[in-house]
Write a structure and sequence with these properties.
With about 300 residues, this protein is α/β, with parallel strands linked by helices. The protein has two domains: about 90 residues, Rossmann fold, CATH 3.40.50.10860; about 130 residues, 3-Layer(aba) Sandwich (Rossmann fold), CATH 3.40.50.720. The protein contains ten helices and eleven strands. The protein has a six-stranded parallel beta sheet. Strands 3-2-4 form a three-stranded parallel beta sheet, with helices on both faces. Helix 1 runs parallel beside helix 10 and helix 6 packs across helix 10.
Length: about 300
């Protein structure tokens, strides 16, 4: 078993992003600029946004943070998004999900200008991705692709099984892994809550990508020997043994599954760090005014 080390790969990629950001800033007369909006006080969301802002600073981006109370009206939030859409000094905008129940996530996502949608969630960008046109790839699937490429994982002709069908991870991941590109050219199966006998399907997976949000839903008896396992899950549980007061667990029971794998991502230290890299690369592309889905070649 070998680790797909998100910490190592993300550091390598951020070094190059910082170099590119410096060159872009010389041309633009300003640094690439990302705005993050957080609604409410969800602990996990606060952690994610803080990490994104910290990483922006590390690579030489400008970051702006707007925080709203959980009772902010949908209209007020949409007005702010439109204001950001019209601001030429801002390259990228993300609204951290989930949102309070009285605010429609679909309305919010569709309100963001596609050219500033560096999370890659807007229907226009998802449609372009489906057609293999230049666009922003959703940050988490983008991070997974970058990880697979960094470690030169063979994907051609492989059976890729994806557990989870969200528009954020599972659905775009299936499109990307099936496309005629590298990473890609897989035969793809999507499993979800209504799939019967998931174990039978996962046992046939050469590459298993899990994005459900349920602790240790994937166990050793579901994995064939030599599989590549990508764990997108980030499940927080209170803990008195950590400084943060919580501990992160993946969707995969790492300790039991890892011995059967050829490659596996840890949690933490895997896909989460790569998601941020995907966001940074999309923001850099937005600053360049050259939106691209091509993945830079990485040499490790």
């Amino acid at each position: 078993m070998k680790l797909l080390d998100g910490k190592y790969v993300s550091q390598k990629l951020k070094q190059q992003i910082a170099i590119d950001a410096y060159e872009v800033a010389k041309v633009l007369g300003r640094k690439p600029h990302l705005v993050a909006i957080l609604v409410g006080d969800d602990g996990a969301s606060e952690t994610y946004v803080a990490s994104k802002i910290k990483n922006c600073e590390q690579v030489g981006f400008t970051s702006t943070f707007h925080r709203y109370e959980a009772n902010v009206s949908e209209e007020e939030l949409l007005v702010k998004i439109e204001e950001i859409n019209q601001d030429a000094s801002i390259d990228g905008l993300l609204v951290q999900l989930p949102l309070p129940k009285h605010i429609s996530a679909d309305k919010v996502i569709q309100k963001i200008a596609p050219e500033k949608d560096v999370d890659g969630f807007h229907p226009v960008n998802l449609g372009k991705m489906q057609c293999n046109l230049p666009t922003y790839i959703p940050a988490t699937p983008y991070g997974v692709l970058l990880m697979l490429e960094a470690y030169q994982i063979d994907t051609v002709g492989k059976h890729c099984v994806i557990i989870g069908r969200s528009n954020i991870v599972g659905s775009p991941m299936s499109v990307l892994m099936a496309r005629d590109a590298y990473p890609g050219n897989c035969t793809v199966t999507i499993c979800h809550s209504k799939t019967q006998d998931i174990k039978k399907i996962t046992l046939d997976a050469d590459i298993l990508i899990v994005a459900v949000g349920k602790k240790h839903i994937v166990t050793a008896d579901m994995i064939k020997v030599g599989a590549v396992v990508i764990d997108v899950g980030m499940n927080r549980e209170p803990s008195t043994k950590t400084k943060s007061g919580y501990k992160l667990y993946g969707d995969v029971d790492f300790d039991q599954v890892a011995p059967k794998c050829s490659w596996i991502t840890p949690v933490p230290g895997g896909v989460g760090l790569m998601t941020i890299v995907g966001l940074l690369k999309n923001t850099l592309a937005a600053a360049k005014g050259n939106i691209g889905s091509s993945i830079d070649s990485i040499r490790l």
